[in-house]
Amino acid sequence: MEKILYITGSFPRLGDGIGDAAGKLYSSMIKEQDLLLVTTDIPGIRNYIEENKYKNVLLVPNWRLGTVIRIFKLVRKNRIKKILIEYAGNGYRKDLFISFFFFFIRIWIFFCEKKIECHLRLHEYTMCRIARKIFTWPLVKSCHHLDTPSFVEYEYLKKKFGNKVFKSGIGSNINWTDSKKALSEGKVNLGFFGGIYPGKGIENLLKIWSELEQKYPEHFQYYLLGGFPQNLTSVFDHYQEEIQRLIHEKGLSSKIIITGFLPEKEIEKQLDMIDIAVLPYEDGLTLRRGSFLAFLCRNVAVVTSSGDTEARELFKDADGIKMCTNEQEMIDAILDYSKQGKYYAAGLSNGQFTVKHNLPGSQKSANFPYQA
After folding, report:
1. pLDDT of res. 94
2. CB-based contact 193:291 (threshold 8 Å)
3. 286 or 192: whose pLDDT is higher?
4. Are 290 and 172 within 8 A, CB to CB?
């Protein structure tokens, strides 16, 4: 059996969606493959690996040049035949040397006549800042196969890099329920799920909630399920401080319940408390958004940004998913949902069943030769 090296900065309990997706992919691959894992050494990830008794794992303190050299030696020593890198992810922090890893491998392959396949699962590109795009490019250019869960990214990268680019689903680690969901008695619970990072539209979310609270005081209860990442460097500290300031300025400090990091066994219970999910993504709704899929899995009505072509087609008949072009449309959709005595997300519509039957089983990226 050929040995496979899986490199991911994020892994479960880091506190980002890419880490959860990486954990799901790893758990499915380890049953069938001779697999080595390299990921970030922080307490949450370390505890998760120990609890699951995963073997053949290298935990690294950072992703600087010394670590990349160490991983290269691991490739040589173990005669690795396939390498998969999960990118990006908060676990890489601001260390950029992993971006050149495939480039180094390709040079080594050329001069030493080795046969190693380089696979990349890329979660975002077009929405990245210029610096991130520049340092993502070497990975994209040097890989043999590239998979992306976003249709927007797929269309763009396919034009640029051709037939090595494939569309794949990330699935969800949340269990599905088909039960219809009644609104909570008393206040209507509005929720956002995920870590507080740039690009998720948190500023717009707070504007929407602030306006609702001013016009309809004490009618809504607001939940930030997840909150601020733990055990990382100061990559997002400034942004998170700004969000805390906005919450205070808008008079929402006593109105919003921030749960902090949620253990796996608590996530579904917290999601089930929410009546209406509010997800104003800056780059619009795409199926790479694990937070959206999580609410969909639990039959929670969703108010979100306008979707890409794939999302619009998939959910055009899903009454419980409102894709909006601006904040006022989102407010109107929230009020519309909150006036109904009983509501549930996509229910038995074609939209939910299409996602349910296609995505959760698609944990392995489409073109990996080791896919079952």
Report:
1. 81
2. yes
3. 192
4. yes
